[in-house]
Specification:
Ribosomal Protein L24e, Chain: T; Alpha-Beta Plaits; Calcium-transporting ATPase, cytoplasmic transduction domain A; seven-stranded mixed β-sheet; six-stranded antiparallel β-sheet; 29 strands
């Protein structure tokens, strides 16, 4: 497949979207590009495509030197039709989401937020550092969107309206480049070390000049591609920070890499004292590992978001005034229209049934497995599944006004909140960097007057010695090792704060259906009332095989009998004839014969014309090892509670079986949020769920865990995913969090002790640069090897 004519990104396999541009059908990679391209053509902007010089790359520029093609494209965002596609209006202000490219650390996010907040007309700006999404609210008549995006470009970043496909493609591009840079740095490190060892040995035992020259030039040839390509993101960020007059960790990193490289080149050609090619490669490699893992995490989240984008149907049947049906895109449906949802179809809008009777599976919203019986005048929810028969629905809410969109809005609001540690990092990052640069400047100035020939080399020793390699690796290496061990054992961590926050947890809240239970109906008990020549379960299975109702899956038998005249009675049961005898299976009212269920529970009756034959008790099976998991969590001093949207007595039964003392049934998504808000923040509550109804509380909880079989929406925005569905892993996760915290403290203590001890020695000129480089690398290796202890999970 080729590239998108609008944005230049590769078109994924299976995508067949086009737009008529300059008299020809052009291939598009996503619906967003198609919509923007159509808007450009319809409003007379085709010259944008005719005169642009490139599609894939946007050059670095300042606000005053915007290329004409970029100006044209940004101006299009102010077009009312384009603006309607990429934003929404709330209380007279516009809201949109932008994807930002080029962010490297928390300080970058702080810079963008601060600069945009100073714009008149910008009401709110929040940048999600994990996903690189900018949530923007602004007054279009005061500050056009094109001006806001122009400001982002002038800071050295790139921005575009968010669409799942475009975001995923951007992340894939970043990941590919990260892998290439990482592999080159790894190869360069190995080869540079091979040529550096003879030079280190030669410092003590002596080495012939021709061999020394050979090893130095070999190191130069190997290191140059690493500096020019692998370390390129650090230098770009350095230049951006200098232009914006804002310091980030990339500044000392770039000075150290660039300074060590240039000093080594100078020393190579002038037969100077030292070269540091191996240190340059190693330092670059260690830093790129962290960047790669961060890109990898964002790509995984972006792919999950794309799956959610396909949740709602793209088209539906509209009932016209003359009674005919017309298949139309959902975007062309208006409030008040009547649409027809066929059996097995997804309902595209909130509304009320005006004709028909069926069962509707609302588990995508409520998380409950039993479909709800719906008839005329009953409300239905967008995203739910029509199970039995066609229904006609009068539309009451569409798109962003539906209940599922409301839940998504709650989710966005929750995910925009920054943890305190991220806010602290924003404030302290620039002060740390300033301190490193100030110390180096003082050392250089002092030695310039003491011994000018040694000033540069001693300053370089200080820069290398104070390079935050071990310090910056102390936390991410431990977290990487800990999360990798958990991932191998079926526990996937999707947020960086999890292991830090988990150790403070004192309370854990469980959802019931699909979390503590399997979310699958099974026959818990059956009671035969009258003798029958055929096994009642065999009769029931033979009838239920003709139904798509979730209850039917509970009835299984090896020998299925042929049934005739089978009829589904929505909300009641099934009838049919087997071996010339009519049977009914369903509710007590449906089978008649004064049938009364034995006791509380979900009972299904089987009867023929004259006798009640059997009762079947259906229940949701408790998840394996759930009891052991609860007991292990109690041993860790965690208070376990059960919150469920199910209103049946089954909630109480599950709580008693698992020995959970505190439980509530019939709790709505808003109720779960309210209950969470009442808890003591110092207890750090953990929430475990699986359905879309759990998404708001999962997003708002300090720690959220989703079962591997959960809905895509729950998994995408959970902090932790139990991929193998084993609840027993939760206790191991908490133990690993405590172990990780101990390792991080050890790493930080070692890094601080190393930096504080070697800095005065380097500043006094006692330690030459190559010893500082070896010490820096050794210090980093100590941190890495200590972190590798987390590769084994605690029992």
């Amino acid at each position: 497949m080729g590239d998108c004519y609008h944005c230049g990104q590769p078109i994924e396999k299976g995508v067949e979207l086009t737009a008529l541009v300059l008299g020809e059908q052009r291939d598009m990679c996503c619906i967003g590009c198609q919509a923007v391209a159509n808007a450009i053509v319809q409003h007379g902007g085709e010259s944008f495509y005719q005169f642009r010089s490139d599609t894939n790359q946007t050059p670095d520029f300042t606000l005053d030197t915007l290329p004409q093609t970029v100006k044209q494209e940004l101006t299009l965002f102010d077009n009312p039709d384009v603006l309607a596609d990429i934003s929404s209006q709330i209380n007279g202000a516009y809201e949109t989401i932008l994807i930002i490219e080029g962010i490297t650390c928390a300080a970058c996010a702080w810079l963008i937020e601060k600069q945009l907040a100073d714009f008149e007309g910008v009401k709110s700006v929040r940048l999600n550092l994990t996903e690189h999404k900018l949530y923007l609210q602004w007054q279009q008549d005061t500050t056009p969107l094109s001006h806001v995006i122009s400001r982002i470009y002038s800071l050295g970043f790139k921005a575009q309206p968010y669409t799942p496909d475009a975001a995923s493609q951007q992340l894939q591009k970043e990941q590919k480049q990260s892998i290439q840079r990482l592999v080159l740095a790894a190869l360069g490190t190995m080869q540079a070390m091979m040529f550096a060892v003879p030079l280190y040995v030669g410092e003590w035992s002596g080495i012939l000049l021709q061999y020394e020259t050979y090893f130095r030039f070999a190191g130069l040839i190997i290191t140059t591609p690493v500096v020019l390509y692998s370390a390129k993101p650090f230098f770009k960020a350095f230049w951006r920070d200098i232009k914006s007059k804002h310091l980030t960790m990339d500044v000392p990193v770039s000075i150290a890499i660039g300074g060590a490289y240039l000093a080594s080149v100078y020393s190579t050609f002038t037969h100077g004292q030292e070269v540091y090619y191996d240190s340059v490669c190693m330092f670059t490699f260690f830093l790129l590992v962290g960047r790669y893992l961060e890109t990898r995490t964002r790509l995984r989240n972006g792919e999950a978001g794309n799956q959610l984008h396909n949740l709602m149907p793209r088209a539906t049947l509209k009932i016209l005034e003359n009674g005919d049906e017309a298949l139309l895109p959902v975007t062309q449906i208006a409030i008040g229209d009547v649409i027809r949802v066929v059996s097995g179809g997804t309902i595209p809008a909130d509304g009320v049934i005006v004709s028909g009777k069926s069962s509707v599976d609302e588990s995508i919203i409520t998380g409950e497995f039993i479909p709800v019986n719906k008839a005329t005048n009953d409300g239905v929810i967008a995203g739910s599944l029509n199970v039995d028969n066609p229904i006609d629905v009068k539309v009451h809410a569409l798109g962003k006004d539906t209940q599922i969109s409301t839940i998504m809005a709650l989710l966005d609001r929750a995910t925009q909140d920054k943890p305190k540690i991220a806010q602290l990092a924003d404030q302290l990052a620039q002060y740390f960097v300033a301190g490193v640069l100030l110390t180096s400047a003082i050392v250089f100035t002092s030695w310039y007057f003491i011994d000018s020939d040694r000033a540069f080399w001693i300053t370089l020793s200080v820069l290398v010695a104070t390079c935050p390699c071990a310090l910056s690796l102390a936390t991410p290496t431990a977290l990487t090792a800990a999360t990798a061990a958990l991932r191998r054992n079926g526990v996937l961590i999707t947020r960086g704060h999890v292991l830090e926050t988990l150790r403070k947890s004192r309370r854990i809240l469980f959802d019931k259906t699909g979390t503590l239970t399997l979310g699958q109906l099974t026959i818990e008990k059956n009671i035969e009332l009258n003798h029958c020549q055929i096994n009642p379960l065999q009769i029931a299975a033979s009838l239920e095989r003709h139904s798509q109702h979730p209850i039917a899956s509970a009835f299984q038998h090896d020998q299925i009998l042929p049934a005739s005249d089978v009829m589904n009675h929505p909300g009641e049961g099934i009838s049919g004839i087997i071996e010339q005898i009519p049977y009914k299976i369903g509710t007590a009212q449906f089978v008649g014969l004064d049938a009364t269920p034995p006791n509380d529970g979900h009972w299904v009756a089987l009867a023929n014309d004259t006798h009640l034959l059997a009762w079947f008790l259906l229940s949701d099976e408790i998840r394996p090892h759930a009891y052991e998991a609860i007991q292990e969590l109690k041993q860790l001093s965690l208070e376990c509670e059960l919150l469920s949207g199910d209103q049946s007595r089954h909630v109480q039964d599950i709580a008693h079986q698992l020995k959970i003392d505190r439980f509530q049934s019939g709790v709505s998504p808003q109720g779960k949020l309210a209950y969470l808000a009442k808890q003591d923040p110092s207890d750090v509550t953990i929430m475990i769920g699986d359905g879309i109804n759990d998404v708001p509380v999962l997003a708002q909880a300090p720690i959220s865990i989703a079962i591997g079989s959960a809905s895509d929406l729950a998994k995408t925005h959970a902090d932790v995913i139990l991929v193998n569905n084993q609840l027993k892993r939760i206790s191991q996760l908490i133990k690993q969090a405590h172990k990780t915290q101990r390792i991080i403290k050890q790493n930080l203590l070692w890094a601080l002790l190393y930096n504080s001890s070697i800095l005065p020695l380097a500043a006094l000129g006692i330690i030459p640069p190559y010893i500082a480089a070896i010490g820096m690398s050794t210090s980093s290796l100590v941190v890495v090897f200590n972190a590798l202890r987390l590769n084994t999970l605690p029992k």
